[in-house]
Amino acid sequence: QITLKESGPTLVKPTQTLTLTCTFSEFSLITTGVGVGWIRQPPGRALEWLAHIYWNDNKYYSTSLKTRLTITKDTSRNQVVLTMTNMDPVDTATYYCARLNGNNHYSFDYWGPGILVTVSS
Amino acid sequence: DIQMTQSPYSLSASVGDRVTITCRASQSISSNLNWYQQKQGKAPKLLISAASSLQSGVPSRFSGSGSGTDFTLTISSLQPEDFATYYCQQSYHSLTYSFGQGTKLEI
Fold first, then answer.
1. Chain A contacts to B (CB-CB under 8 A)
2. Which of A97, B74, B78, B86 has the most C-beta neighbours closer than 10 Å?
3. Virtual CA dihedral for A71, A77, A78, A83, nearest 10 degrees?
């Protein structure tokens, strides 16, 4: 059974750097066509894609946020890490990680439960 | 960047109704369109990939169609558990993705 779970701080201060970890099981990031993405959702608002990383270490970022985001993977630990610099209250959101399946039309076919991150002093 | 626009923003319907949600892309994305269902407080769930491919375990009352810039998600006979928010997502380039703003389906 494929699972993903987000972990990290639930409260960060403005200007700080957020580091979130996605730990997954029952699939591998060395499998061709597989990736892990990060998506966020501010309270009461729509989903926003942030970044994703593929099995071949290719990385892609949201145009509007790319200067603040870094995504990396640790295949031996089945983890993907997202860092976001210079956090602001508008970045308050639930952050999800999800498996990106290139063998299923590049859809996010499995999701973690999400982690609510609040940005406040 | 490709922009995705859903309509309507919200929709009121009754059990047994047939409902259609529309998603429009700012440029042609072929059939690279996925649909998700999100219930309150939960992570999204993939319903349909590649515009019309129903995922395993998803009831057959859900269907998707379209290609190019215009897509639809249809629920043929609403069930109580279908009241949720629905999102479309394009994966045209497999490089950068975007979601629609969501359609909230209410009783």
1. 37, 39, 46-49, 52, 60-63, 96, 98, 102, 104-109, 111-114
2. A97
3. -20
Q: In what order do the strands lie in the sheet with B62-67?
A: B4-7, B19-25, B70-75, B62-67
Q: How far apart are CA B45 and CA A10, in angstroms?
A: 23
CA–CA min distance B15, chain A (Å):
25
Token couple for A2 = 């494929």
> What is the per-residue pLDDT across A7-62, written as a single tens digit (0 to 9) for each?
999 999 999 999 999 999 999 999 999 999 999 999 999 999 999 999 999 999 99
Whether the CB-CB separation of A71 and A61 falls below 8 Å is answered with yes
